[in-house]
Amino acid sequence: MKPSEPPVYILRSFSSKTLVPHYSNRTFRKIFSLQHNSNLFIHNISTNELGVYYCIQYDSPPLISRGIRLYTQNHAAGEFIYYTLYKFNI
């Protein structure tokens, strides 16, 4: 999510044991993938992927993480970045 933009749904997994998520957009399949234990992997980061990433656990009511901000200070993003969704404090 970028400032002043609404959240973008990237993918959904129905189990922490499955590696086949449901993507909201075909383009996201090339950029994002799901690893073991619900880890999100972002391939070939560009400035388009910079922003805040949230994890939502669908319970009643839904639990939303505080988010992780992906940013760069020199506007040169790295080749890849790896975040564990379990690092989100839900």
From TrEMBL:
Superkingdom to which the source organism belongs: Eukaryota
Database matches in InterPro entries: Ig-like_dom_sf
Name of the molecule in the record: Immunoglobulin V-set domain-containing protein
Native organism: Silurus asotus (Amur catfish)
Lineage start: Eukaryota, Metazoa, Chordata, Craniata, Vertebrata
